[in-house]
Design a protein that fits this description.
Blueprint lengths: L2 H25 L4 H20 L6 E8 L1 H6 L3 E7 L10 E7 L5 H13 L8 H31 L2 H4 L3 E11 L4 E8 L4 H8 L86 E2 L33 E2 L13 E3 L10 H6 L1 E3 L2
Length: 361
C-alpha cells in the first residue's frame, strides 16, 4: 500500500471513528431495550443448556468478534460461555449471538469508500485494502464493548440471569476471540470488607480497576489516590469514605451509601451514582466530561455522561467542581452548594435550581 493511499485511508478511518463516536453519544441508548431483550433470550438458552447437562457452571460469558465474520460482512458477535478454564474450557459453547450492525454503519462506509477510491491510486490492490480494514475492525469494535458496559447492569438484575449457575467469580467480556477483550461486568462473591480493605491499602497501581466491591462496608475507608476505574461499588457503604484524587472513571455507585464522602479532586468521567445517597458529600475540584476531549486523534470511545439520576444530594458541595454534562434527573438537591455561575454548567430542573443553596464563598 503506497504512503499516499495509507494517509488517505488513515484520515478516512479517523473520520469514521469520530462519526461512530457522535452516533454512540447521541443514539446508543435507544438500542438498550433491544440488547436487554436479546440478553434475556440468551440467558434462557444458557439456562436450558445447564438444565440438560450440556453446560456446567459459568465463569465467563464473552461477546466475541470473529475476523471471519468481519470478512464476510456479518456484523454479529458470537456469545460464548466458559468455565473457569476460559479458552481452555473443553466444554465451551456458543450460546447465541449479538447483532451490533447499528454500531458498524460507519465501518461499513469505510469499507465501501476505500474500495471505491482505490482506482484513483496506482498500485493499490483489493487485498491490501481488506488487510487494512481487518486491522481497523478492533477499533470500531471497542464501541460494542462500550455499549455492552452501558447496557449490562439492568440485564444482570433480571430473573433469567440470576437463575443461571455462576461461579463465585464470574465475568462478562467483549472483544476479539483469543485476543484483546474488555471487562464489562464482574462478580466476586468471595470478597469481604476486611480483606478487600487490606488489599486496597497496598495502593497497587492497576489491580483494582473493574473489580467487584459491591455490597461491602467501607465506612470511613481511605481510598484516596486509588485507581478504581470501572470498579463496582453498587450498594456499598462508603459513609465518610476518603476518595480524594481517586480515579473513578466509569465506576458504579448504584444505591451506594456515600453520605459525607470526600470526592475532592476526583476524576468522575462516566461515573454512575444512580440512586446513591450522597448527602453532605464534597465534590470540590472534581472533574468530569462526556465524549472525547480532543477531536485531533481518536484514541478510544468517549465517556458517557456522569449520572446522578435519583441520587440524594442534600447538602452536597459542588463548589469549584467542573462536572460537565452530568445527568441529574429526579435527583434530590435540597441545600446542595453551588456558586451562582456554576448553575449554567449543570442541567438542573427549575425545581432543583430553587432547592440548591447559592453561596459566594
Amino acid at each position: 500500500m503506497t504512503e499516499e493511499f495509507m494517509q488517505y485511508a488513515q484520515k478516512l478511518k479517523t473520520q469514521k471513528l469520530f462519526e461512530t463516536e457522535d452516533f454512540f453519544q447521541a443514539s446508543a441508548r435507544e438500542h438498550i431495550p433491544q440488547f436487554q431483550n436479546n440478553f434475556r433470550i440468551l440467558c434462557e438458552q444458557i439456562g436450558r443448556m445447564q438444565k440438560d447437562g450440556s453446560l456446567g457452571v459459568l465463569s465467563y460469558l464473552e461477546f466475541t468478534l470473529l475476523h471471519t465474520n468481519v470478512i464476510l460482512g456479518k456484523d454479529t458477535a458470537e456469545v460464548r460461555v466458559y468455565d473457569d478454564n476460559w479458552y481452555f474450557d473443553s466444554r465451551q459453547r456458543i450460546a447465541g449471538q449479538f447483532d451490533y450492525s447499528f454500531l458498524s454503519v460507519c465501518y461499513r462506509e469505510l469499507c465501501s469508500q476505500l474500495l471505491s477510491a482505490r482506482k484513483r491510486f496506482a498500485g493499490i490492490h483489493a487485498h491490501d485494502i481488506h488487510a487494512f480494514l481487518l486491522s481497523s475492525a478492533s477499533e470500531f469494535y471497542r464501541y460494542v464493548a462500550a455499549f455492552c458496559r452501558m447496557a449490562i447492569l439492568e440485564c444482570t438484575a433480571t430473573e433469567a440471569f440470576q437463575s443461571l449457575q455462576r461461579a463465585d467469580e464470574f465475568e462478562i467480556h467483549a472483544g476479539e476471540y483469543m485476543a484483546y477483550t474488555e471487562s464489562v461486568y464482574r462478580e466476586n462473591r468471595t470478597k469481604n470488607a476486611k480483606d478487600a480493605l487490606k488489599w486496597l491499602s497496598k495502593r497497587l497501581e492497576y489491580d483494582y480497576a473493574y473489580e467487584d466491591f459491591s455490597g461491602l462496608d467501607f465506612t470511613n475507608a481511605d481510598l484516596s489516590e486509588t485507581d478504581l476505574r470501572y470498579a463496582d461499588f453498587r450498594s456499598t457503604i462508603l459513609c465518610g469514605a476518603d476518595l480524594q484524587e481517586a480515579m473513578l472513571a466509569g465506576t458504579r455507585f448504584h444505591h451506594a451509601d456515600m453520605r459525607n464522602a470526600d470526592l475532592r479532586y476526583c476524576l468522575l468521567h462516566e461515573a454512575d451514582f444512580t440512586g446513591a445517597d450522597l448527602s453532605g458529600a464534597c465534590f470540590s475540584y472534581a472533574k468530569a466530561y462526556s465524549g472525547i476531549s480532543s477531536r485531533k486523534k481518536w484514541m478510544a470511545p468517549g465517556f458517557a455522561r456522569t449520572d446522578f439520576t435519583k441520587a440524594r444530594l442534600c447538602g452536597a458541595d459542588f463548589r469549584k467542581a467542573a462536572i460537565r454534562d452530568a445527568v441529574f434527573q429526579d435527583a434530590v438537591m435540597d441545600g446542595a452548594l453551588f456558586f451562582e455561575h456554576q448553575l449554567e454548567q449543570y442541567d438542573l430542573s427549575a425545581a432543583q435550581k430553587k432547592a440548591v443553596c447559592i453561596t459566594s464563598l
